[in-house]
Design goal:
single chain, alpha/beta, Helicase, Ruva Protein, domain 3, Rossmann fold, 7-stranded parallel sheet, 17% strand, binds ligand FO1
Length: 324
Amino acid sequence: MILAGGVGGSRFVRGVRHAHPEATIDVIVNTADDITLHGMRVCPDLDTMMYALGDGIDPDRKWGRNDEGWRIMDELRTYGVEPTWFALGDRDVATHIIRTELMNAGYRLADVTAALCHRWLGPESKIRILPMTEDRVESHVVVDDPEAPSGRRTMHFQEYWVRHRAEPDALEHLLIGIKETSPAPGVTESIAAADLILIAPSNPVVSIGPVLAVPGIRAAIRAAKAPVLGVSGIIGDAPVLGMAHRLLPVIGVEVSAAGVGRHYGHRDSGGLLDGWLVHDTDAGAAEALTAEGLPTVATPLMMDDPAATARFLAVGEELVGRRA
Ligand code: FO1
């Protein structure tokens, strides 16, 4: 069982699949990045996971469909319809239309996701992609805005991330609606039944943070019989992918592998982890965290290909006492 966001998460899942070709793998995916645009429900992390595992992802952008066209966006732009800063490709739009239609017809997001995955992963797939919740929850970011009456402005995470490229300093990260959410069907059952729980090297604030904030998920992980292994997405003082360094300070976490390891914490001291993997260059952090009681190993963490990911996963499994 894996907790994950989109780009880094899907790369990690491919490595886990490589390491365990026959295993049943449930992936619990962040949905707080989701957004409704042009009347369509868009679920970026679910789609990135689904397209990447189904070989339909654009290899350069790392989101959206490969062999994509942009005629719908061009047409919307010509009409002057906003937002034009969030690009929905023609092929990708088909996914959003189907999702929106099914949800409007009353189907739950988990069922819709399973239906979409039927195409991408096949009917016999042993990978199950589960949204963290069925309920609407959105990541918002608060920034300074001298022109706003309060001097601050709150915007959807996608506006902060895509439109503003995470450039303004984030003052706060809000998860709107999170308290009213509950885990999607299958999520807590999957956690309880897992024989290994993995926290992918995804953004700890906007990808893993929302999953853990769904009431019931954190407690289910703490109560699980399976060992919990986390993988740092921060190498040195920078994220391998994305812009986690722009948001970690907002939740008071140092931008380092040690900072994120302490943030997730050891299971015995109220945290989640039984083991933590950091990159080779963070050997000092591994020593410090191990001395503090969180078993940590430094090993090459680059996910250049699934085999490389599988290699560091084996190191982590050994650390938490589960051999492949
Ligand atoms: N990222 C961008 O940088 N620009 C875009 O226009 C954009 C559109 C988009 C459409 C569908 C989708 O599934 C993802 C998309 N992304 C885009 C990626 C997405 O904004 C983020 O990378 C994730 O939400 C962060 O995990």
